[in-house]
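W.,

You were right to be curious about this one. When I first looked at the sequence I had no strong expectations either way, so I just let the prediction run and decided to look at it fresh. Below is the sequence, 362 residues in total, followed by the output.
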Amino acid sequence: MACRVSIVLLVIGMLPMKEARAQFGNVPVGVVAKAGDTFISEKEFLERFEMLPGLQRRREGRMEETKLELLYSLIAEKLMSQEARERQLHLDSTFRLSFEEVRKMLARDQLYREEVSGKVRIGSNELEQALAQAVKEILISFIYCDRQADAVFLRKQIKTSRDFDSIQIDTSFHAVRDTATVIWSDANPDIERAAYSMKKGEVSSVIRAGTGYYILKVVRVQKSDFYTSLQPSVLREKVQEKVRERKEEARLSDFVASVLKHKVGYSRPVQLKALASALRKVFAAGQVEGKVALTENSAAEVRRECRAMLEDTLSVAGDIVWTVGDIVDRLYTTGFSVDSTTVKSIHHLLNGQLRVWVQQEL
């Protein structure tokens, strides 16, 4: 059957449409092949060809051969899918589960386009301001505090720029002093926003960023070697892309908060802590160096460590329930990984991953 179809393919592609219709029936316009009861259009072929990996496919000597190989592959796909449908394999529980996961991802993508990216607009003034900031870097001196009360107290003692440099920081404040270069789009948005709004020598108010509180002083403003080296059109494109990315992140955060407001989603702390401990033990035993992902063997070790609670509920997302065993399987299939610097913080990594999965499911 494969040989017969490949001959049909070649003839349809080579014959004038009138002769093709005479030999093979009612062939639609723009068709390059037929597999069973399905036509393969020029558009589908071109889209697949452009996505085709392969270092040699652009070589003229192999171009026709590569195209034929792709057509044979497309025909085989169509015939096999038709055979699978005839056998009703699309009703198989494993297929339905896998297809449902793909369907969810496509639906979430569409939701993102409609509610996030589709609603983000970049004004001309906003873009011009970003362009002006991108070509500058800000050297800052800063005081970082773990606790807001400490930062507020220190800021009250700073009356002038000179006070910022001379103020003594007692060890009881849990504070550190350091310097940094704020590069547009690379810094924490709150730090960046404050730094680019200040003049040389100016001291900021207390800024909450990340897990702590900052007091900034602008030391120097200098040009950005990277952004000033770009052609104007490239610079504009990169800056616009980054502005859109940030606005989409902000829009997504607001949208997720509103959508999840009345939804039920959580992870159980006892099971979460036990799984995190098992993961830490397994990764630590392997002497982590560089980035290491959960393998089939290490996942099996994690299951053994958690064997007493594999069937316990770990996370809930609406009417979906994931057991400890389900989560271990999912961590393995998604390539959950750590490095030497994050082994000790596996609990936070795991908690963050579960939060994302619960939010996505909801």
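Here's what jumped out at me. Residues 1-18 have pLDDT under 50 and may be disordered. And, maybe more interesting for your project: The longest strand covers residues 212-223.

Coffee later to discuss?

I.
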